[in-house]
Design brief:
Distance between the termini: 47 Å
Strand order of the largest sheet: 5-6-1-7-8
Number of domains: 2
CATH architecture of the largest domain: 2-Layer Sandwich
Order of helices and strands: HEHEEEHHEEHEE
CATH topology of the largest domain: Alpha-Beta Plaits
Length: 174
Amino acid sequence: MNHPNNRIVKEKIKSNLKEFTHLDEKGNPGMVDVSEKLVTKRTATAQAIVVVGSEIFQHLQDEEIYTKKGPVFQTAIIAGTMGCKKTADLIPLCHPLALENCKFKISFSDSNEIVITCTASITSKTGVEMEALTGASVAALTIYDMCKALSHNIIIKEIKLLEKLGGKSDFSSK
């Protein structure tokens, strides 16, 4: 079916091809060719913020929340690590990477916020920002899953890239 809007979309894609690295000259999606890139140390740090109500936060003891399913933050770290390693299985045009490191930090604010930070690193031809973002996201979703029996008053407020180092360009939102 050749809808008039399809032509407009194709024209916009063609005018922006240089901006979108995952599109070829015809606007078809594809993986970025990294064969000519240099192997460098690459690190990315992402953050997710989970806001929980006081009915959940009151269960915090010794920097952990325990539910019938088990320790929430320990489980979130394991799930986030698994998510990091499976990013290419979830995001279609990501390169499969053999991560060299994946670390999590979970902290708290006075406003019932749980702050998850995921840092991933590799020595490779491509970056790890999608892996760090996926790790933080999966950890946040795991906190939701582990705590929903206590309350559904849970908001995953923010997921963002904090920093990317290595490769062609660095980035920092700090």
